[in-house]
Amino acid sequence: MVAQDRPCLFAGLCVSLPRNRTALAPRQQFQVRARFPILREEGIAVEYFPRYIHKEYRPHSLDVVLLSYIVRGSGRHVMGEHVFQETGGSLGITHYGQEHDILTDPAGMEIYNLYLDLDRHALPSLPAEFRDLLPNILPLHPTFQNLLNRRVRLVFDHPDRITELFARMQRETGAREPGAADVLRSCFRILLIECCRQALRRGVQPGLDDNAPQIAWLERLRRHIDDHFAETLMLDDLARLARVNPTYLSRAFKRYTGKTLFGYITERRLQAAMVRLRGTSDKILSIATDCGFGDLAHFNRTFKRYVGVSPRAYRWRRA
Length: 319
Description:
By secondary structure, the protein is of the alpha+beta class. The chain has helices spanning about 35-40, 135, 160-175, 180-200, 215-230, 235-240, 245-255, 260-280, 285-290, 295-305, 310-315, and strands spanning about 30, 45-50, 60, 65-80, 80-85, 90-95, 100-115, 150-155. The chain is about 40% helix and about 20% strand. Strands 2, 4, 5, 6, 7 and 8 form a six-stranded antiparallel sheet that branches.
């Protein structure tokens, strides 16, 4: 008997794989950090596959964050429970330990892999209009991974721009020329800006679970929190907004995101603070209060518990 298929919930054409497909092949984790000195030093490396051919489904994960950009070719990109029919111009982002696989048609695909170590290196600063959007595309630290942002996919309106950036970053990854690391970081910053622009145009669709009938109202509530995270948010007020019982809201939100309601709010505030720390010269006290923390001591303790370093140390950590 064939297990029931699960369709994906992302926009665009998708196909399904059986629920028990993970039993077909063992999961592997590839160790990428050791292969690229510049990844260890700068937190970024790009690898190019001009004609990648892969037909047998073998889910795997990496010890870094993976951004897979498909330039051209056709096949399927399997990201956890979601499967996308690919023809080029798409970027799939899988976080630490999240399984994925790309199955190609006989002619193969042209693919760039960007490897990103967010555990040891901070993201570059971005223009102010993108600061609140970036965490929805790329969690700023492994701690902030949840059920909705651990896999993200974007399809670009202007893929030629993205291809040029990946090609330049790949050349600089293996270059021994002076300034290669600076060019690599600069191109990566532009790539993040392009991702944010695309997300503003088309939105970011999280990896939702189609088994939960309450998804629509939970997603509206989550977006409300994203828009108002710096304000005082009380459980009873959020429950009234969602028109459900507070206890039920807490349980449903945990199932939906993998985080407690106030754990999610805290992480959203921390990520906003991280972007401000990297992108402005504002005083740490001002950043803490603007992002919803009542006092500096509480902010410092919470930041270090989640991120592993103090806000001051994170501000000066190399991108």
